[in-house]
What does this fold into?
Amino acid sequence: WAADNILFAASRGLLSGTSETTFSPNTGMTRGMFVTALGRLAGINPDSYKTGKFTDVKADAYYAPYVNWAAKTGIVDGTSATTFAPDKQITREQMAVIMKNYAAKLGYTIPKTLKAVTFADNASISSWAKEAVKSMQQAGILAGKTNNRFDPAGTATRAEVATVLRRFVEI
It folds into this structure.
């Protein structure tokens, strides 16, 4: 189901494979990887973001300039005032919030083309993510899973991220 979306994201340099010949679509996406993909999508110059406020983002990490850019731009918050947890798996509700922030900070208007869905696990969506989940769902960027569940605390897989990136670009 995600093959075309993976090719779309990989061919544009937004996501890389996990080796020369594998993508690992069912593997979880880390917070650092996700923000790197968004920085690539925005076309930022990594050399312009050498320093940042997070103590757990090492300056020589591939994701460092992208995390620094996203934090300075207001697209992401850390897990605390000084930490980002770049190697922690990104949850589906975190992805929704970051995508909504990304759109707002880069001046994109998110359309409301679909009717709002009340997911079976709606009560499990964190209060700070409810509006972003609704916005991304109504735009057709994020969808639920089987049995009308959103799975807010579930890890966003590499295939799901590729799909979200493609839908965002196309919308």
Observations:
- The chain has a mean pLDDT of 96.
- The CA atoms of residues 36 and 62 lie 8 Å apart.
